[in-house]
Write a structure and sequence with these properties.
Blueprint lengths: L26 H13 L2 E7 L5 E15 L2 H9 L1 H10 L3 E5 L2 H12 L6 H12 L1 H4 L4 H12 L3 H5 L20 H16 L6 E5 L5 H10 L2 E6 L2 H13 L6 E5 L9 E7 L10 H11 E14 L8 H7 L8 H11 L2 E8 L2 H15 L1 H7 L2 H20 L2 E9 L10 H8 L1 H6 L7 E4 L3
Parallel strand pairs: 4-5, 4-7, 5-6, 7-8, 9-11
Antiparallel strand pairs: 2-3, 8-10, 9-10
Helix pairs in contact: 1-2, 2-3, 3-17, 4-17, 9-18, 12-14, 15-17
Length: about 450
């Protein structure tokens, strides 16, 4: 694609002929102009239409320019931007001619904030909420297919943007300048501190991924860990790594749905898996944790969440990245916990940590884009770049956060204050924001 502001089309396509009636005689162009006029107030967006006429929105910097290469794309974005925008970028029907796709999404979402933008988008979001239960239908068989869609991709892909521990969840940043490796190791420290591990304990890791957390817990506290995952490739990778590191007698990984797990565990941890459960299954999820957790046990659930009211799964993310995935509001989680008989011991809200994690992933992915294209193709690369960029912008402006929810079965199992977590090395961010007197909710924010 040419890197200029002429609105030239993507390779292999031809520009639409100029519209003799003018672009704004088309209803889709009128709707799109109205939406962007309402949204873009700070910063400037230049939109090149298929007949190469340019519309400008907003004022001042930053300046971003995009080109739409056919009127069908204009119409689809005007009608359903949440789905069509990502598809247009994937297919080369939307190109960024000044800046990059992250700059464009950052400009849009920083102006929208926690709102919904144009009335058309608000109406679509309300309609999607009506189908939430169907979208999040996640029985055992479908759950495994959904996991395979994302996590059973090439191992090489994840090596191109993750840290050496293959932590595919939010790092714990003391400052935005921390390296990804430092932030991920600090996250492992922080989780271990909240679990209050002791030698000989039995630990269950629900959604164990490539095994980095389970192996880390076994090394640091001489505990026995069982990891369960629905990804065939992740399970094979984790088992091989445990054997290679001499921990196969302490750590075991099973290809198993958490709903089929049996036994009693002193500690249960689940990082980055709850997003795949589905709201209708929250009571079952927490009831299962309550059933598996020993009387003096401690559980920790680390999940992406939302600070706004419950919504529906994002249509583009659901279709292309995480089928069956959903980011819950705290108001959806708490009733299921209460009904399970578990007790909430602590809630920590991480605001910008995932934005910094995604930024690091995105930059590493872009640095290795040629390698990824050799594995897949250019369309896959545009899809993955859009995924990382859209998620980063959403964590900065769209109300996405991470909840760390610490659970017990009875009162008095944990210390009354959090000094032990700070002492365990969670860093200055934890110490500076640590609550005094046993306060139950703490917010951490990158400085």
């Amino acid at each position: 694609m040419p890197n200029n502001n002429t609105g030239l089309t993507a390779v292999g396509a031809k520009p639409d002929a100029p519209d003799p009636l003018g672009p704004l005689r088309r209803p889709s162009a009128i709707v799109l102009r109205a939406a962007l006029t309402r949204i873009i107030r700070t910063g400037t967006l230049e939109l090149c239409l298929p007949d190469r006429r340019v519309l400008r929105f907003g004022t001042g910097g930053p300046i971003v320019a995009i080109a739409l290469h056919d009127w069908r794309t204009v119409r689809r974005i005007a009608i359903n931007p949440d789905l069509a925008l990502g598809e247009a970028y994937m297919d080369g029907r939307l190109s960024v001619t000044h800046g990059d796709i992250y700059a464009f999404l950052d400009l849009c979402l920083s102006n929208i904030g926690l709102g919904s933008g144009h009335w058309v988008r608000r109406l679509q979001q309300r309609l999607r909420r009506l189908g939430r239960r169907f979208m999040m239908h996640n029985p055992v068989g479908r759950a495994q297919r959904n996991v395979a869609h994302h996590y059973d991709l090439s191992d090489d892909l994840y090596d191109f943007f993750l840290d050496p521990e293959r932590q595919y969840s939010c790092g714990y940043f003391e400052t935005p300048g921390d390296s990804l490796e430092t932030a991920q190791l600090r996250k492992l420290d922080h989780i271990a501190a909240k679990l209050h591990l002791a030698p000989g304990q039995k630990v269950l890791d629900i959604g164990s991924g490539w095994g980095g957390l389970a192996l880390s817990l076994a090394r640091r506290a001489d505990v026995e860990v069982t990891g369960v995952t629905l990804s065939v490739k992740q399970q094979h990778y984790a088992e091989a790594r445990a054997l290679r590191e001499g921990l196969s007698d302490k750590v075991h990984f099973a290809l198993r749905d958490y709903r089929h797990q049996r036994g009693q565990f002193d500690r249960i941890v689940s990082v980055g898996m709850f997003e795949h459960v589905g709201a209708a299954y929250y009571p079952e999820y927490f009831s299962k944790i309550a059933d598996l957790l020993s009387g003096d046990g401690v559980a920790l659930v680390h999940t992406i969440g939302s600070v706004i009211e419950p919504a529906a799964p994002h249509p583009w993310i659901r279709k292309y990245i995480f089928p069956g995935g959903y980011t819950p509001s705290l108001s959806e989680i708490m009733p299921a916990i209460e009904r399970s008989g578990l007790i909430v011991a602590d809630i920590e809200v991480l605001h910008l940590h995932y934005a910094e994690t995604l930024r690091a992933w995105r930059l590493r992915f872009l640095a290795n884009r040629n390698h990824v294209e050799a594995l897949y193709d250019a369309r896959f690369c545009r899809m993955w770049e859009f995924y990382l960029a859209a998620c980063e912008a959403s964590f900065r402006y769209g109300g996405l956060v991470v909840f760390q929810i610490q659970l017990t079965r009875k009162v008095g199992v944990l210390p009354m204050i959090r000094n032990d977590i700070s002492d365990a090395g969670c860093g200055r961010a934890g110490r500076d924001n640590g609550a005094a007197g046993g306060s139950n909710i703490r917010e951490l924010q990158c400085r």
